[in-house]
Amino acid sequence: MDWQGGAVVVGAGTAGCAVAAALASLDLDVLVVDAGMDRTRQLAGELMHPSGAADLQALGFQDALRATGAVSVRGFAVVDATEPSDPSTCLLPYGPLGEGVAMEHSALVAALQASLVGRPHVTVWDASRVVRVARNGADGVEVDVLRPDGTEARVAARLLVAADGRASRVRGMLGIEEENVRLSTMSGTLVDASHLPHPGFGHLFVGGPAPVLAYAISADRARVMMDLPTGAEPTTPLREPHYLRALPAGLQAAVTKALAQDRPLASANFTRLPKQVARGSAVLVGDSAGCCHPLSASGMASCTRDALTLAHVLRERGGDIPAALASYALVRRGPQRTRLNLASALYRCFSEASPEMTALRQGIVRYWMRSPAGRDTSMALLSTRESRMWVMSFEYARVVGHSFAALARRLLKGAVPLGTAVRASLGLVRSTLPHVGEAARALFEDAGLRRAAAASGRRSASA
Ligand SMILES: Cc1cc2nc3c(=O)[nH]c(=O)nc-3n(C[C@H](O)[C@H](O)[C@H](O)COP(=O)(O)OP(=O)(O)OC[C@H]3O[C@@H](n4cnc5c(N)ncnc54)[C@H](O)[C@@H]3O)c2cc1C
């Protein structure tokens, strides 16, 4: 055996680095194997909510975060330019949730990886790729790793953690199936941060054909990400400038210039949902355990949460890995369901041109403008601090209420024909039903979870 120990972590992105640190803090010997992809050409997470930043600090990455030149993020500014002559802005501060951080993705991962090297209990094999899961049973795993010199090494561990991203090959090697829906293409370019109208805030521009996200990722540069139809060229907004319609004139001009000068980064956006997150002595974390549209910027906070959850259940269950992984799957299910539902509801709301989603967009802006408590709850949900599905469903219903009010006012003003208003109303009611269904399912499953936890507590007490 070329290496033998407590855990093999496949992938050293945000999830893999966080998991390695969390497992090492339990005194487990950890081998981190990373294929070493070029992240400077990758468009990925750059804004981390306060919960993710706090988790990384708890895992000992505070110096690493500083090394990235990260800037603080106080919340989100939603700019609605549905009426281009009269755009409205709603500020959604994190408030008591703390501050988020934003930085260049490649700088973040390089700093996290550098911080792992030399930690007690951690061995890193870079430029190495897991090519086979040779064995996966209740007593441990064996995997084959292709080393940079072309040889294969066999390693054995009590636990295998697949942190190999949304296109996870290890997930397939474990025989775990997934649902995979391609949503859109994201094009990302860099502009001078002074063009963003609300310094210190992440920006969401809506009211164009699709949402545009923009964050400062250093003191002077901001990433602007444009959501485009699947398969579109990343430079499409140069030929079809209506994609930039929701941006203020100065930012629009800066983005156009940047697109013409430098090839933008691009990424496909997916919803990917594995059918299981644990099998035998193997577990999925981070994007390999499920990903969604990046509009909610929740992917990295979910990665760090997975790391802490895994460490927590392992500590709780002592050496019983299958029992710990069963707990991990249960504990994670609720928050993950809420995160994925929220991302898909927001994406539909801000990208779909149907009468009901147009009304929902107006309703959500009206809700945020009028309700400070609503703003707080929305930010708690967005930042993953609030993870109860019924809270998300209740918020959705409240937004629908505001949408009806906005629709009625537009109907009275003659701004919308009666037929469209009726279609929008029916569509709004229909769009609420899946969230109510999910909330009911979640309450049912949570009750099951509480019963299972109580039964397991009784078993441990009598053992
Ligand atoms: C356009 C876009 C914008 C986003 N914006 C945000 C945002 O603002 N905020 C946010 O929180 N999230 C955002 N996300 C999501 C975020 O990027 C991801 O949630 C996060 O990067 C996932 O990290 P990970 O560690 O799970 O996977 P990855 O970062 O993909 O890392 C996987 C690692 O596994 C390695 N690997 C793969 N296969 C193997 C193998 N067989 N053997 C060994 N190593 C292997 C790779 O080399 C890689 O290093 C965004 C995503 C996209 C696409």
What is this structure, in a nutshell?
The protein has 463 residues and is α/β, with parallel strands linked by helices.
Commentary on this structure:
It is a single chain. With 463 residues, this protein is of the alpha/beta class. The chain has three domains: 203 residues, FAD/NAD(P)-binding domain, CATH 3.50.50.60; 90 residues; 102 residues, no CATH class. Helices cover 44% and strands 24% of the residues. It has 13 helices and 18 strands. Strands 1, 2, 8, 9, 10, 11, 17 and 18 form an eight-stranded mixed β-sheet that branches. A seven-stranded mixed β-sheet has the order 6-5-13-14-15-12-16, sandwiched between helices. β9 and β10 form a beta hairpin. The longest helix is centred in the C-terminal third of the chain and has 45 residues. The radius of gyration is 23 Å and the shape is globular. The model has no long low-confidence stretch (mean pLDDT 93). The site of flavin-adenine dinucleotide has 38 residues, from α1, β3, β9 and α8.
